[in-house]
Amino acid sequence: MKITVMTSDEKIITLDVERDESVENVKALLEVETRVGLQQQQLHYNGRELSNSDKLSAVGVNDGDLIMMLSLPASSSRSNDMGFNPDGSAVNPGAFQQLIRSDSNMMAQLFQTDPELAQVVLGNDLNKLQDLLRQRRRQRAEMQHKQEEELALMYADPFDIESQKKIEAAIRQKGIDENWEAALEYNPEAFARVVMLYVDMEVNGIPLKAFVDSGAQSTIISKSCAERCGLLRLLDQRYSGVAHGVGQSEILGRIHVAPIKIGNIFYPCSFLVLDASNIEFLFGLDMLRKHQCMIDLKENVLRVGGGEVSVPFLQEKDIPSTFLDEGRFPKHASSSGATATSGSQVKSNNPPTVGQSSGAAQGDSTEGAGFEAKVAKLVELGFGREQVIRALKLFNGNEEQAAGFLFGG
């Protein structure tokens, strides 16, 4: 609907607003049109002053109605309260905070230009607000000093070698600063922490927060987690070894099959058991492939079985804080072990005999009699020889994973 606003200097302004628009938003529109600050505006309708929280429909404003706007002078005491100390802190931090909070346009602009300060303004810690204002003052002083240095370089001797080096460094740093500012404006999420993908699962009836990692070759469970799930009795120690990635972890063995529940459906799952404290349960590429999983980041869900089950990825607040320890993640992801992460290798303590599938050294081989035995065994299942060889090479000689891939294809 359209409303007409008459200002104290008899200026007529027509605004196109929603029927349920708040008075505060109307003032914000008028601030753009009249350059009169939101706090200095006073709106009246039918002789009644409207408060910022009022809705137009609630106070009876209809299409074509007239609203009066009075411009109030800013009080001197308030101006003093809004001042800053020499160190950059606010003279009256509480009043400063309330002023920013009450101005929706200013808050919106602050969220774009300085989201950290915007969050502190919305908080309740005035000491933190003062500290951040002092920090911003120092940053402005440093920027001014840098600009003065750049100005001095402009008038420096262009033939002086040291001056040339400083000019080159200043040009390079300017490019970096411009790139950083562009990132803040167009790609601010790049500066935020990326929360890893976790979903709720049950392993042998025990609920877990499972880390979904398509970059890990194998599904991993820690010894303590396997014990808690009652699966340690099924540990096949013939598949023990050492996982080498960025870090190093001991592979205690393999649990060949156990039920996992995703959503309301049970799926068979096999996994390596690692003696590692930095990981509990990692759902790797082998099981993601086997159960035709899709990581849907648009809908923020994990789809299993080609879409028969969809479970949401957990929000940061639902993930245990120990899992969010940023210092643990690099090791977590890179030492997830034998066939667990890209580029990892296994040193086998007890290599399995020909025909056994393993992430161990002999199991990873794609040459020799052992490899040919695996090819022959899978060909007997009805697959073409070339198809079998490609699948075995894709999974570094792992017969079980190759078979799952062939059956799934």
TrEMBL record:
Residues 330-366 are annotated as: Disordered. This is Ubiquitin-associated domain. GO terms for cellular component: cytoplasm. The keyword Cytoplasm applies. One of its GO terms (molecular function) is polyubiquitin modification-dependent protein binding. It is found in: Cytoplasm. PROSITE patterns: UBA (PS50030), UBIQUITIN_2 (PS50053). Belongs to the DDI1 family. Residues 362-409 form the UBA domain. Residues 345-365 have a biased composition (Polar residues). Residues 1-70 form the Ubiquitin-like domain. GO terms for biological process: proteolysis. It holds the Pfam family UBA. It comes from Dillenia turbinata. It comes from the Eukaryota. Keywords: Aspartyl protease, Cytoplasm, Hydrolase, Protease.
